[in-house]
Amino acid sequence: MSTALPLWAEVLTAVFAVLGAAFAAIGSFGLVRLPTFFQRIHAPTLGATAGVWCITIATVIYFSVQGQNLFLHAVLITLFVALTAPVTTIFLVRAALFRERQKGGDVPPAALSSESPPPDVGTPTGPRDR
C-alpha cells in the first residue's frame, strides 16, 4: 500500500529529476553540436555524471520519504557511474591523441618523459625572462 508523499518531497523530487534530465539533455546536445572529437568528449561525460547525481538525489528523497527510512541503494549506481565515466573518457582521449599524433594531426605534443632531456633553462621563455 503506497501513501501519498508530502508536498515538499514531491516538489524536491520533481526539481532534482528535471534537473538531472536537463543535464543529460545538455550533454546530448553538446555531443551533437560540438565540432571536434576532443570538444565533443566532454559534454556527455559531464552531463551524465551531473545528471546521474541529480536523479539519484531525487530517488533517495522519494524512496526515503515513501518507505520512512533512509534509502541509499541508488548511491551505489551513482558511484559506479561517477567513477567509470571520467576514466573511460580519459582512455578514449588518450587513444584519440595517439591516433592523431600518428597521423600528424594538429594536437598538443606529448608530455616530457623521464628519459627526455629537460628544456634549456638559459633561454628566455617569456617577458619576465628578457
Question: Can you give a write-up of this model?
Answer:
The protein is elongated. α1 packs antiparallel against α3 and α3 runs antiparallel to α4. The termini are far apart. The chain is built from 4 helices and no strands. With 130 residues, it is mainly α.
Q: How would you sum up this structure in a few lines?
A:
This protein is mainly α and 130 residues long.
Task: Please write out the topology.
Blueprint: H1 7-33, H2 37-40, H3 42-67, H4 73-103
Helix pairs in contact: 1-3, 3-4
What global shape is seen?
Answer: elongated
Distance between the termini: 78 Å
- The gyration radius over C-alpha positions equals 23 Å
Ranges with pLDDT <50 over ≥5 residues? none
Number of helices: 4
Helix content: 55-70%
**What is the element string, with H for helices and E for strands?**
HHHH
Q: Look at the helices and sheets and give the structural class.
A: mainly alpha
Which quaternary structure do these chains form? single chain
Mean pLDDT across every amino acid position: 82
| Proportion of beta-strand residues | under 5%
Largest sheet: none
* Strands, count: 0
Which descriptors apply to this entry?
130 residues, mainly alpha
